[in-house]
Amino acid sequence: MKVLITADIHLGEYNDYNYSKNFRLNQFDKLADRLIELGKQYSCEEVWILGDFLRVPNSKSRIQHKLKNFIKKLCNEFTYVRYILGQHDLDSKSDNQDIEDTIVSIPELGNFIYMDKQFIEGTKRIAFANWTPSQDLSWIDGKVDLLCGHYTKSTLFGQDIDESKFDLMIHGDIHNDQVLGKFISVGNPIQHDFSSQSEGTCIILDTDTIEWKHIKIDEDHTRFLRMYYTDNPNLEGFSDELTYYKYRPPIQKELSDVNKPLINWKDIDDLIIKITSDKGLLNIHDEIKSSIINQSDIDFDVQLRSLDIHGYRSVVDFHIDFTEGDRVILLGNNGSGKSSILNALKSGFDKSRYIQYEKSDLTDSVLITIKFVYQNKFVELTKGDYFRLVIDGDELKYNNKTEFENDLIEKFPFIKYLDIFFIAAGSSNLSSQLSSARCIELLSKFYRLDTLTYLSNKANDRLNEELSKLRDKQRDLDKTQGAINIVDTRIQELSEVDLTEETKLLSELNECNELRNKRDEYLNWNNSYKAIVARCSELETIINTYASRLELDIDSLKSRYNAVNKEIAEIDESLELQSSRFNKLVQLTKSNNTTLEEATKIREQVKSIDNGICPTCGAKLTSAKLESKRAELMDVFNRLKSSYESQIAELNSYSNNEKSDGYFKKLLDELKVLRKTKSDESSLIFNKISQYELAKSDKETYDRKLAAAESEKIELESHKIEEVILPYNLSETEDDLRNKLNLINHKKDYISQKSNLESEYNSILSEYNEIDKLVERYNDYMLLMSNTGEVIEEVLKRLATKFSSNELKYEVSSGVSYNKRWISFDTYYNVKGNWRIYSSLSSGQKQICDLDFLSNLFATKMGFLVLDEYLRHLDENNFPKCMDILMKMKVGVMIIATHDINITNYTKRILLELNDKGETISKIL
């Protein structure tokens, strides 16, 4: 399955650089559409979002609706949208997180799946993890092939993480498409600000193979805003609705001393081209140079504006303002607070973990605030009891001090070189800091020679890539050679097999097959003939059987069948008549009895009335009622009498025999028995007739089948095949021939396999040799461009020539030790006509050498330089020389702590002393 991976969407309004109202906010709708397009283009079933949906966790309602629409669009087009959370999504910045710590989880869509600490188990095992401060992976049992997370990783800093838990990590949080070892950054999909990559990227991943690749989201720059710096102030602003330029002034590179012109990149480019051309590596150089992107130089011009110190050692409160070109002298006795002020300034830029230990016992708090300008931005930096960073009036928010400190290094990279800004107290020379290797490194930084390092590093990356390919090809060669050896062994095992016998063996096997075919033909004919003879005999038997069934007198049977059916009809008629008469007799008898009983009751009632008594209640009746009741009863009696007489007449129509008990029942039973007998006879006759008709039809069918079979028999007899008898050992002969042919085929297959393997081996070997040559060329090129390579050596020689004077001389030497090339950048001082190397000089002479090197080093402007009691070992002859060098250095602000009150080259002179409480008191002299 292929999936589309994105991260660091940072959905927000972005009111800066808006071409029109809500222009940048509406880009996120376009981003959802573009992700859907890419998903379809690369056949992705799912999209995975690895954290930081939002710019800030508590977003406005407008942003929440935009987020909902963004998620809904993706869910409508992909099978699943899987997601984890970044620190910008979460209210909680601790390890204890809950899904309710974010508004991202509010859209409850069936295919919007929260994946923190979840796995996808398939061909490969994949785990997901939110951003957390600790990046604890103890919940992963064993090891996964891929970890998808939100993880802070750069070349300078990386969160601690257990790398044994995964083979590869794809992560959000880093706003570029960097690849650092097993850590692959997705990159931001669209540009948010000048610190994020301008060309948005996402990743296409195959979950079955863990193969991945970065793809550009807006490769033709037709969809999303891009922002660039420019050194041309006239270009600032929109060139079109998708391109914005911001002016950043160029760094001044010319040295004040016109007799010491700065070596320029054209000289170095010409030098590189000449050396690489002489070495036959010009094409490698062109390739490497064209592949370098995102290189940047370090700007050392940090312009101090003020320093405020509260509660640091003896300094309770101290404030000083700086202006460009300041030369500040701090005077005072030992312990008056000079070093405290300078250390506080250094601690303000450096890691702040020790500031709390320097808190004054005279105050309850400690704070150091430095205000400065860096790359045209006004910065206010505070450390101590709390940390704070304000740039151009906007305060930046941080989750913790570690994030704050790391961001300082990202925003102000000069901090990595603080040791060159601060010359520590007690040092009579800089030899511990300015070793030959350190000198070369600093020259690379100040003279913008980092491109050599980029070239070397990129060549080293390519070298490692090719070495990896070379190892793969070596494994392929070993594997192929092993296969060749195995096949060779098999061929040797078949050394006695003669390939030339194949034709003869095939011919003999064909003869055997032909003999078997003839035998099979005879057997097939013989089996068919026997079968048809048997079939004819079988049909004749069947036909005879049917013929015997047709010997019946069918006409007599049919005549008898009709007569019996007529008798059955007559019996059915008699049954119906007698049954009807019987039923009527029963009914008349019953009705006659009932009528007689009712007439008897009426007669009794009439007798009662004749006696003057009511037949119902027994009471005496009046004469009127007696007559009425008697007349009513006599009407009923007369009707019953008439009915009785009619019934008697009908009963008299039956004979006495018929009226006797059982007569009709016996008569009906006899008729039923007779009918069954006749019915059985009819069924038997009918079956005989039916069987006769069936037998007649079947006989006709089998007569036709017999005729067809006899015709087939005649046809077979006309094509009779003579009998073939096989040799008794034919099977053994065939097996022997097949075995010999199988061995020949095996040998031929092995020979063919060996030929293919040898061809494959030669092809791989050719590729191996080509890669090996390329490895050698990358290695040669890398060595040329390294910090000990010929190019930097030649550049350093040119710089050494430009740095040298009548009093000081710089020389570059090189050599090879323990198979490693080295370069030495040495300083010599003219002592009465004799050039003495730096290591043999006095402390004062070394200080002159050190300051001269620093003066030459600051080709690009140095923001400030701090010397703490650095000049105290100088005598009256060397002191003026050093001061003259210091005052001419390209340094914005110089701060010198000293006991010597005779220094006259200054713009501010500040006297420090302790009061009775032990507080440092400052006074401008």
Molecular structure report:
The model is unreliable at 249-262 (pLDDT under 50). The protein is of the alpha/beta class. The chain is elongated. The strands form six sheets. Strands 4-3-2-1-11-12 form a six-stranded mixed beta sheet, with helices on one face. It has a six-stranded mixed beta sheet with strand order 5-6-7-8-10-9, with no helix packed on it. The protein is 47% helix and 18% strand. It folds into four domains: 2-225, Purple Acid Phosphatase, chain A, domain 2 (4-Layer Sandwich), CATH 3.60.21; 302-448 and 787-924, P-loop containing nucleotide triphosphate hydrolases (Rossmann fold), CATH 3.40.50.300; 460-493 and 737-785; 494-726, no CATH class. The two termini are 77 Å apart. The protein contains 18 helices and 30 strands.
CATH architecture level-2 label of the largest domain: 3-Layer(aba) Sandwich
- Supply the number of structural domains: 4
Shape: elongated
Summarize the amount of helix as a percent range: 40-55%
Low-confidence stretches: 249-262
> What is the CA-atom radius of gyration, in angstroms?
59 Å
SS elements, strand count: 30
Q: Remind me, CATH topology of the largest domain?
A: Rossmann fold
In terms of DSSP E residues, the strand content is: 15-25%
With helices defined by DSSP (H or I, 4 residues minimum), what is the helix count?
18
Mean pLDDT over the residues = 85
Distance between the termini: 77 Å
The CATH class of the largest domain turns out to be Alpha Beta
Quaternary structure of the protein: single chain
Corresponding CATH superfamily of the largest domain:
P-loop containing nucleotide triphosphate hydrolases
